[in-house]
Design goal:
This protein is α/β, with parallel strands linked by helices and 486 residues long. The chain is 39% helix and 22% strand. The strands form six sheets. Strands 15-16-17-14-13-19-20 form a seven-stranded mixed beta sheet, with helices on both faces. The protein binds nicotinamide-adenine-dinucleotide and (2E,4E)-2-amino-6-oxohexa-2,4-dienoic acid (6OD).
């Protein structure tokens, strides 16, 4: 059977190209599809299509019209729910339970949330006095940025693409989306759903490809792209920043993390263990918010390590389609090489491997996939590279601390600052420690609990700006202040 070809979607047309690359399934290395790579001319056509759409009816559309279309796209995702679930599983190998509960519902929820927000949000106004006593009234109106490039990663493909596409479209922009080369499937379905929902030609465009010397670079260096919103590695963020500098594009960056979890002596240990199992191993550790550095009060350290180890060893690693599967493979063999190199580095740096550290054996087709063991490390100094660099796999290092001040200073001793999780039964300790953590998001007695109205983003190497709720509208639109002399 011939593999399907995932096409680009430009100016309302599904387009193939001569240059194609393979999309493979990390469960067993099998071919999912061939992907038509967009060349520079195709990316340029997408940008021109976006520009034309902005000059046409889309440019004068009302928030209500745009919200109606976004709801129709969400309806389309829900109608083809199983197709989206299967596309996400084929590209990532993630457990079906996660794709059904998180990835696809959040994809639709992002569209509905920003549709509702844009029709209910207000803008600022202020009255002022003037010397002649007549006064003046200032008010602002939101305007779209123009053509926005959305570049997204492979770990939560539909969720993270719609997280940016939805507010960009709600705000009236034209979008060129580029999914990760590892996960083109659900984005291709999204283009089909956009088309079926009646999104006007050129408003949403999809280009497939890689970063350097491919669609990613063609987009970030294009002089007629007004803004780039990017989720991915911090080093890629730096490269995009350089590429976008010549045209002074607006940038929003959600980048890497080396997130801390802090377990205090008064923590509800059952909840802390459950929460840390989630925060370390969810999505095979491939969530930017995952805890890779776990600090436990010295009085609970041995107990915590023993219990987390037990849980890691009992996690159900298995076929993504099995309902009981808890952990799937990494995204690719290439990424597994990287994670395994950190497992080796940990040994070289003097770590104790409490559990894991290698590759599971199945005796079936999965041995050709990108599977890896959940791993727990202890005993490393804070200067170790395994403590300082993002690994992005199912692995954490656990270290003891003795005082609250020490816990805060260990958590903050990082070049990254995306998220943290704090486990304590003391409300005031939870609050005061959370305030002192240098990160964009701090969870107390939970992890990855999302309210889409809240600011999302990181400090230091973890990003620039905030998205979520009105913060997204603030990035994807620009206010014009109108001052009326009364
Ligand atoms: P990546 O940076 O390798 O790739 C992300 C996207 O950027 C892909 O679409 C890729 O093709 C594109 N790209 C790569 N180089 C480019 C270039 N020079 N110019 C333009 N585009 C380019 O990241 P990844 O490996 O796909 O994802 C994992 C990383 O993403 C981790 O570091 C993780 O922490 C981070 N991440 C952060 C968040 C967040 O919200 N902060 C969310 C998810 C993932
Ligand atoms: O849930 C979200 O809105 C979000 N941006 C999650 C990011 C996860 C990173 O891997």
């Amino acid at each position: 059977m011939n593999a399907p070809v995932f096409k680009n979607y430009i100016a309302g047309n599904f387009l193939t190209s001569e240059k194609q690359f393979e999309d493979t399934n990390p469960v067993d290395g099998s071919l999912v599809a061939m992907v038509a790579e967009a060349d520079r001319e195709m990316v340029d056509n997408a940008v021109q299509a976006g520009r034309a759409a902005l000059k046409g009816a889309w440019g004068s559309s009302s928030a209500e019209e745009r919200a109606g279309l976004l709801h129709a796209v969400a309806d389309g995702i829900e109608k083809r729910f199983d197709d989206f679930v299967q596309a996400e599983i084929a590209d990532t190998g993630k457990p079906v339970s996660q794709a059904r509960a998180l990835d696809i519902p959040r994809g639709a929820a992002n569209l509905r949330f920003f549709a509702n927000l844009v029709t209910s949000s207000t803008t600022e106004s202020s009255e002022m006095s003037t010397a002649d006593g007549g006064g003046a009234l200032n008010y602002s109106v939101r305007k779209p940025l123009g053509v926005v490039g959305v570049i997204s990663p492979w770990n939560l493909p539909l969720l993270l693409m719609t997280w940016k596409v939805a507010p960009a479209l709600a705000s009236g922009n034209a979008v060129i989306a580029k999914p990760s080369e590892e996960t083109p499937g659900s984005a291709t379905l999204l283009a089909e759903v956009m088309h079926e929902a009646g999104m006007p030609a050129g408003v949403f465009n999809l280009v497939h490809g890689f970063g350097p010397d491919s669609a990613g670079e063609f987009l970030t260096t294009h002089p007629d792209v007004d803004a780039i919103t990017f989720t991915g590695e911090s080093a890629t963020g730096s490269a995009i920043m350089r590429a976008a500098a010549d045209n002074v594009k607006a940038l929003s960056f959600e980048l890497g993390g080396k997130n801390a979890a802090i377990i205090f002596d008064d923590a509800d240990m059952d909840a802390a263990i459950d929460g840390t199992v989630r925060s370390v191993f969810s999505n095979c550790g491939q969530v930017c918010l995952c805890s890779e550095r776990v600090y436990v009060h010295e009085s609970r350290f041995d107990e915590f390590v023993r219990r987390l180890k037990e849980r890691a060893e009992n996690m159900r690693i298995g076929w993504p389609q099995d309902d009981g599967t808890e952990i799937g493979p990494l995204i690719s063999k290439k990424h597994r090489e990287k994670v395994l190199s950190y497992y080796q580095l940990a040994r070289d740096e003097g770590a104790t491997i409490e559990t894991g550290g290698g590759i599971p054996e199945f005796g079936d087709k999965r041995d050709d996939g990108a599977w890896i063991q959940p791993t727990i490390l202890t005993g490393l100094p804070e200067t170790a590279r395994c403590i300082r660099e993002e690994i992005f796999g199912p692995v954490c290092h656990i270290a003891p601390f003795s005082t609250d001040d020490e816990a805060v200073s260990l958590a903050n001793d990082s070049a990254y600052g995306l998220a943290a999780a704090i486990w304590t039964t003391s409300l005031s300790r939870g609050h005061s420690v959370a305030r002192r953590i240098e990160a964009g998001i701090v969870w107390v007695n939970t992890w990855y609990l999302r309210d889409l109205r809240t600011p999302f983003g990181g400090v230091k190497l973890s990003g620039i700006g905030r998205e979520g709720g009105v913060h997204s509208l603030n990035f994807y639109s620009e206010p014009t202040n109108i001052c009326i002399k009364l």
